[in-house]
Amino acid sequence: MTAGEIAELLGGRLEGDPGREISQASDLRSAQSDQIAFATGDEALRMAAQSVVGCLLVAENAPALNGRTVIRVPKPRKAFARVLQILHPPDRPPPGVHSTAVIAESAVLDEGVSIGPHVTIADAVRIGEDTVIEAGVSIGRGVTIGSRCWLYPRVVVYHGVEIGDRVILHAGCVLGADGFGYELDSSGHEKFPQLGSVRIGNDVEIGSNSCVDRAALAMTEIGDGSKLDNMVHVAHNCIIGKHVVIAAQTGLSGGCIIGDNALIGGQVGMGDKVRVEAGAILGSGCGVLPHKVVPAGEPYWGTPARPLREYLKGLAALRRLPKVLRELRELQAHAKDDTPE
Amino acid sequence: MTAGEIAELLGGRLEGDPGREISQASDLRSAQSDQIAFATGDEALRMAAQSVVGCLLVAENAPALNGRTVIRVPKPRKAFARVLQILHPPDRPPPGVHSTAVIAESAVLDEGVSIGPHVTIADAVRIGEDTVIEAGVSIGRGVTIGSRCWLYPRVVVYHGVEIGDRVILHAGCVLGADGFGYELDSSGHEKFPQLGSVRIGNDVEIGSNSCVDRAALAMTEIGDGSKLDNMVHVAHNCIIGKHVVIAAQTGLSGGCIIGDNALIGGQVGMGDKVRVEAGAILGSGCGVLPHKVVPAGEPYWGTPARPLREYLKGLAALRRLPKVLRELRELQAHAKDDTPE
Amino acid sequence: MTAGEIAELLGGRLEGDPGREISQASDLRSAQSDQIAFATGDEALRMAAQSVVGCLLVAENAPALNGRTVIRVPKPRKAFARVLQILHPPDRPPPGVHSTAVIAESAVLDEGVSIGPHVTIADAVRIGEDTVIEAGVSIGRGVTIGSRCWLYPRVVVYHGVEIGDRVILHAGCVLGADGFGYELDSSGHEKFPQLGSVRIGNDVEIGSNSCVDRAALAMTEIGDGSKLDNMVHVAHNCIIGKHVVIAAQTGLSGGCIIGDNALIGGQVGMGDKVRVEAGAILGSGCGVLPHKVVPAGEPYWGTPARPLREYLKGLAALRRLPKVLRELRELQAHAKDDTPE
């Protein structure tokens, strides 16, 4: 592919040699003369001036880079993400069903579906076109999966779960296991059967070994475009909106509601029925008390989670605390001296 | 099933139409005329008055609901859990061994056992009657599993683990992997072989992708009726009592001892050899220092974990801290003004 | 094996009966007359005096244990670890490929490799001699695995990952899944394709259900001899040095660099690009802010992570806070009384 062709695909403005052959994308540090990279910020632009990189994505207002082939775009990093997708498409396995897969007769596989070795697909499953199901995946009865999804090895989908289009599920993630519900009792805990299910929207990506539990009676939902990292726990009856981002090892207790475009850090913990408003931001490691409402605007931090400024103010006060205690002792001594006895 | 038959099974007192046909259980909000729900609390009872629900489980002393079919029981939620089990029994796969399963000749499967596709069962394994082993489960040499258990897809049980009756293991959980033991050394860490095993009592349920490690020399144990949520980590040599509840993503370091009926929140972390007394309560996200004893009575919270009242007092003091520092500055200024120089 | 033979293998000094037959290793508490145990510390030595244990590993300067067969060594616990390895070697499955495994023609398996049931091995994979691949493991295209490794059931290795010699991967762990990278955008989050890979050194052990993500463009690395516990998350582009120990449920965000011999507790969270210096110690549950450098020397604790002494000082001040607030109120009242109005 030439630099000129890439510029055209991106709708960017080319400077330099449009015929330059580009075969790979790379990071700026190790880029070779047949590779494309991106540079934003002064340091990266300085490094770019030294590099032998074949073509460079830069911002529209970046300084001139004499003698280089550059493509000017509004968002170089985003343009680079697209170049990566074009130059390095994922290595799609060919369509077809591997001979070792066990597929129920009542399952319906649309055109172009690829089913790997040792896959199990139960009754009444429906899988949309061009979806890839890798080795050892297990799909329960009545599950529906949209088109162009990709399920990596050892994913488990329990019965009845609904999955949209272009969903990516990484290895070992589990959708639709029973929610954690019991009637606690001195004579033993009675299981509260979990009869609901899980609905995953379009363009969702879920990381390795993450778990999304089925609802008790209704639906646990993850909205279109939301992205969950590895080992995220979503308990029964949570409703996660659209384009939500949740980093690794975060856990949501039962019935949490997360608004669209919320950003949630890693290792966050939420109690039951927390409500995170659309666009809200939760810092990594924070703990949100049950039934709490987290508003948009200022990020929330700490445990119990509170507005960042308040958290920082408390932290600063805490840092000064040992010194303050000493000063207080002096004041007390002083007051005692003053006191007529 | 009729409302009268349900009342009889529950030992409840029926008011209204005993012949009312009930085909499903539902939540109160979406309940239809052939469905049963439960209502506790004023708000739910008000909602019930508006609902078309076919039959309602209420407390024995709940107000009259004129013109409705109700069943009065001591604990409506617990009765509802039982109704769910009766009206919606899990969809049990038929007994038998799938042709793709690999079963050692020396394994003994009792009557009614169901083995799914791509299961691996090693030598000298013994599985009790009516137990379900789903797709892709791997059972190591010498494992014993009781009757009426349910192992969901991709569960891994290492060699020698002992599992009681009616145990539920959700997808991806791992029992009996090596405990994390090394002899640390400047020349490299020498593995301390883990020769013990894991013993799981009756009526235990363990969530998806949870890990229970084998003991170094003795047994890691989980007592009868205990329930672990998703992604719980139980290190080597832990002894968990009966009817203990542990929420998601909690981690127990080596050699912790948890008394019967303890309640442990999510994302709790325990150091080595913590002892949690019977009936103790640990709030979500708290961190317990090694060798600490957590008594029953008041719940424990925070890091390092301490009695809830103490934690709350500290938190309140912390909130007032910035204001207090300002006041202290004023006092210091005041003292300075007073000081004769 | 006799006590004399064991003493010779360990290079230890035997006292008592060199012909004593030892068939098993055990903990001191339950040791029998044909078993070997170790004893360090006064309490253990007192217990040893009462025990029927057949042979005892003790420190070189331990007091005399009359009438007992003991082996004196510099480090009894380390010597015991070696005895465990000798007396209880892991039960290695025989070499060969199970008939249900699916192996690409272009894969190269060296001598002595053991491949279990339902394993999937893709194109151009290379596996070194005497490596064990257990049931249901999935190995992606172009992966290389060294000699004498052990992959427990259901491990997933994505394409292109490089694994050294004598590496142990426990059940359900996932190497090489996509890093969590998106271009966030109001119109949806664009996936940043993850084209790098993962390189695992020699003698590494990784716990059950842990996840090590592939780098965006370069390599995520884990150095020789490092040990990761269960459910550890290593994000894209992390570089972990040699002989690092990371306890369970710890999470590293993207681009963290961990120096050799660092010790990292359980449930630790690190922000992006944290640098932990060689030999540094991070206490369990601590949270490290992005870009922070953690030096060697004093352990770091708490959130945000800080030197242990500072953390403890803050904690002590915090404990005194409610009392201090009362004293401050008294001082204020006193100051008011003093003030002429």
Describe this structure in words.
- The structure is a homotrimer of 341-residue chains.
- The mean pLDDT of chain A is 93.
- The longest helix of chain A is centred in the C-terminal third of the chain and has 31 residues, at 308-338.
- The first copy, chain A, has a 10-stranded parallel β-sheet, with no helix packed on it.
- Chain A is 18% helix and 27% strand.
- Chain A is built from 4 helices and 39 strands.
- The N and C termini of chain A lie far apart (94 Å).
- The first copy, chain A, has 3 domains: 3-87, 3-Layer(aba) Sandwich (Udp-n-acetylmuramoylalanyl-d-glutamate--2,6- Diaminopimelate Ligase, Chain: A, domain 1), CATH 3.40.1390.10; 96-306, 3 Solenoid (UDP N-Acetylglucosamine Acyltransferase, domain 1), CATH 2.160.10; 313-338.
- The first copy, chain A, is of the alpha/beta class and 341 residues long.
- Chains in contact: A-B, A-C, B-C.
Q: What number of structural domains do the residues of chain A give?
A: 3
Strand content of chain A is 25-35%
Shape of chain A: flat
Quaternary structure state of the chains depicted: homotrimer
CATH class annotation of the largest domain in chain A = Mainly Beta
Tell me the CATH architecture of the largest domain in chain A. Answer: 3 Solenoid
> What ranges of chain A have pLDDT less than 50 throughout 5 or more consecutive residues?
none
Tally the helices of chain A: what do you get? 4
Helix-strand category of chain A: alpha/beta
Instruction: State the CATH topology of the largest domain in chain A.
Output: UDP N-Acetylglucosamine Acyltransferase, domain 1
